[in-house]
Amino acid sequence: MITDRKLTFYHAAPSRGNTVHWMLQELGIDFDVKMIDIRKGEGQTPQFLAINPLGKIPAIVHGDTVVTEAAAICCYLADSFPEAGLAPALDDPKRGAYLRWLFFSPSTVEPALVDHAMGRETGDRSMVSYGDWDSFLSVLLDVIGKADPWIMGKDFSTVDVVLGGAVRYGRMFDLLPENPVFDDYITRINARPAYLRMQEIDAPYVAAVMSA
């Protein structure tokens, strides 16, 4: 357990930072937040580029450790604060499946949703991480459909934060089709107190962006 180092969360709402903010709320730990207005170029300042040279949100600084990329941050946090029970231990047989579905989101789900949103034809399925849209959708429906009630079984985990957040995003913008499998899972997510806290805290920032 790592508790003696200051944790600073660099966030923008709405953005992938919402996923990390939700994770932090699930952990129930103390952290500082620095809001970065990426639309005003605050992600391109020398100070922030020293943290993430791509100028992207989210990022965390935990003591001297810098972590970027939402799924990597969530994985790091779950392992750093194991008392929250959001990740199988390193020697747990479930660890492999946990990592598989945790990183399925950034490596497969997000590229599929972006291509679908842009109307891009993939052509050669060997050139994209998800193969083709129909195959991808079939696998995603199978994974979410087997959630009982969560992807790793009875216990909520970091997989539900990362992959669940992507599924929720996909349905919010109609990138994923209406389906009871997705919608029932999202209903369970929406009822989590930590998710509701994240939404409430981020609401003023989201409203400001939407009204700009």
Outline of the structure:
By secondary structure, the chain is an alpha+beta fold.
What report would you give on this structure?
- By secondary structure, the chain is of the alpha+beta class.
- 51% of the residues lie in helices and 8% in strands.
- It contains eight helices and four strands.
- The protein has helices at residues 17-27, 46-49, 70-80, 95-118, 133-145, 158-172, 180-190, 193-211, and strands at residues 7-11, 32-35, 59-62, 65-68.
- A four-stranded mixed beta sheet has the order 2-1-3-4, covered by helices on one side.
- β1 (7-11), α1 (17-27) and β2 (32-35) form a beta-alpha-beta unit.
- The longest helix has 24 residues, at 95-118.
- The protein is globular and about 45 Å long.
- The termini are far apart.
- 34% of the residues are buried.
Write the layout of secondary structure elements.
Elements: E1 7-11, H1 17-27, E2 32-35, H2 46-49, E3 59-62, E4 65-68, H3 70-80, H4 95-118, H5 133-145, H6 158-172, H7 180-190, H8 193-211
